[in-house]
Design brief:
412 residues, eight-stranded parallel sheet, 10 strands, binds 3-O-methylfructose in linear form, binds magnesium ion
């Protein structure tokens, strides 16, 4: 093939994207509670060892493009859009006004707001640092984000305490740090109760997000399970207002089964928000888009969430690859991520109504009929053949994933 001149490359990407087919219409995509983060679309490809590969993108452009694609909701950190030193000033009001305008123009809703407590130098010792000034500043930032959330009509606030930890051992007091972190969340909830009452709005759902590694070397609340324990620790004044925002990859990173982590959150009634992406076990936070690494596991995640009526947002917290251009971020990355999610959602529906799976599950739950129910060997024997169905269910799910249940065949 001859080299492709740069002015023909977008057309090529577009033609091949169209050739892939199976794209959903924006109206269809809008039916799902899929939320698009400002920071994901505006990610410029930078990292510790990586220079940026893309140009800055404004929130107006992100909102307009999400609307075009059919992503119905937008989420943001306070400082994604408001410079840190403009927080709480008239400039903040002006920017929030522009955000409201852009959301209204493009018929998008703000679903979630979150406070950036990991990037700026003020967070070097975490938002629950020893210094009372840092903690008071953190509380004021959290209260401010709650007010912005109400102003923008959001229903969720998310907290990622990635800087709550340390690099060198023995430097911080873990117990005090956790107590101080609880004080911050308490300040946010108290402000929420006050503002919600004033505006006649429901309070926000405050969701904690865990990540096992990064950016601190050791993290005090590394997993969703650790956070469930923290919520139940008695240190929160409004534990009923605080739940979880697990992230698929963050659980996988520490070696967990994300489905089991989600199940534990569901069991506790705390699965309120979900960051969707993909990646590899025991690696850093590669934030690959949903379904590109573990589609079978993703299918099963959605079977779980659909079966147990999860109704919260699916937040596209991934990073478009550095190799994707500014144009490609919207033309390919977000569109295909949303479409894979919807396809997996649909497949989960097929798995849930599949007669083979359903009969196998019912049979497993019925069990065998031991001749002597008190005799251990009799119980083992009575179930021996039934348990082969576990593997058959896994095979059937594979067939559903690749379409063989609908007659897709491969030549031998
Ligand atoms: C980091 C994350 C964060 C959180 C966000 C929400 C930048 O790995 O996942 O995204 O999702 O801070 O509070
Ligand atoms: Mg991540
Ligand atoms: Mg996240």
């Amino acid at each position: 093939m001859a080299p492709i001149p740069v002015n023909q490359q977008r057309a090529l990407v577009d033609r091949l994207t169209t050739a892939c087919g199976s794209a959903y219409r924006p109206e269809t995509r809008r039916k799902y509670f899929i939320t698009g983060p400002q920071w994901a679309a505006a990610y410029e490809g930078h990292a510790l060892f990586h220079a940026p590969t893309r140009k800055p993108v404004s929130f107006e452009e992100v909102i307009a493009k999400y609307a075009e694609i059919g992503i119905g909701y937008w989420s943001t950190h306070d400082t994604d859009v408001i410079p840190t030193d403009a927080i709480g000033t008239a400039k903040q009001d002006e920017i929030v006004g522009r955000i409201k305008q852009a959301l209204q123009t493009h018929d998008l809703k703000c679903s979630m707001v979150t406070t950036e407590t990991f990037h700026h130098a003020v967070w070097v010792g975490s938002p629950a640092a020893e210094s009372p000034q840092v903690r008071e500043y953190a509380a004021s930032r959290l209260r401010n984000t709650v007010r912005i959330g109400h102003e923008l009509g959001a229903s969720y606030a998310v907290y990622w305490p990635g800087s709550l930890g340390y690099f060198v051992q023995g430097a911080i007091d873990e117990i005090k740090t956790l107590q101080w972190y609880a004080d911050g969340l308490n300040a946010a909830c108290d402000e929420d109760i006050r503002v919600a009452a004033q505006l006649g709005r429901p309070t926000l759902k405050h969701c904690m997000e865990a990540k096992p590694f990064e950016p601190q070397a050791e993290i005090l609340l590394p997993t969703s399970d650790a956070m469930l324990a923290f919520i139940a620790s008695g240190k929160l004044t409004h534990p009923e207002m605080v739940g979880l925002n697990p992230e698929y990859l963050h659980e996988l990173m520490w070696g967990a089964a994300p489905r089991a982590a989600l199940a534990r959150a569901l069991l506790a009634g705390k699965l309120w928000h979900f960051d969707i992406n993909d990646g590899y076990r025991l690696k850093h936070d590669v934030d690959i888009a949903v379904g590109l690494v573990n589609p079978l596991d993703w299918l099963n995640v959605l079977v779980l969430l659909r079966s147990y009526n999860y109704t919260g947002p699916f937040n596209l917290d991934y990073k478009p690859p550095r190799t994707t251009s500014n144009y490609g971020v919207f033309a390919v990355s977000f569109t295909t991520a949303v479409d894979r999610f919807i396809s997996l959602w649909e497949m989960a529906g097929e798995a849930m109504s599949d007669s083979i799976i359903n009969e196998a599950v019912q049979a497993l739950q019925a069990g065998g009929s031991p001749s002597d129910p008190k005799d251990v060997n009799s119980i083992v024997e009575a179930n021996r053949e039934l348990l082969t169905l576990h593997e058959l269910i896994a095979h059937r799910l594979f067939q559903i994933l690749i379409g063989q249940h609908r007659g897709r065949t491969f030549s031998l």
